[in-house]
Amino acid sequence: MDKVLIVYWSGTGNTEAMANAIAKGIESEGKEVDIVPVDSANEDMIKEVTYVALGCPSMGVESLEEDEMEPFVESLKNIDWSDKKLALFGSYDWGDGEWMRNWKDRMESYGAKLVADGLIVNLEPQGEELDNCTELGKTLVNA
Ligand SMILES: Cc1cc2nc3c(=O)[nH]c(=O)nc-3n(C[C@H](O)[C@H](O)[C@H](O)COP(=O)(O)O)c2cc1C
Questions:
Q1: Which of 35, 60, 102, 107 is most buried, by CB atoms within 10 Å?
Q2: Where is the Flavodoxin-like domain (predicted)?
């Protein structure tokens, strides 16, 4: 139950870079982590772990990516989230983070407990932004 799972969608690699930095933080706390692109993930993987991080950039108009991430997130509705800890993250460009606020509200409506506000980064994460991702990984597994 101690293994950590990161599931993400990333079109141009920015959210993927966040996932890798979050994984670094998790590993620095001595935990094992699997990083799985959402097209290789399923809800049973989430059921098996306590610590989960989900990543998706702002797509559409302030939405999750609609072909893979949106149906995956929808499938998480009926999971028992009561003993799980969740972190959300993703990259954006011109918006103000609305998609992430909506996503957080949605996950909380499923019963999920977030360890922090969703972490958002403008375009490619660099410097301090990568450090913030690493910190989120640590926060997740210490929650
Ligand atoms: C089709 C499309 C729709 C997008 N819609 C939004 C949006 O509504 N708000 C926003 O802030 N950024 C939007 N973006 C910008 C992406 O969120 C941004 O490029 C992000 O860094 C992509 O992350 P990725 O490299 O993980 O795919 C959009 C990008 C694309 C290609």
A1: 107
A2: 4-141
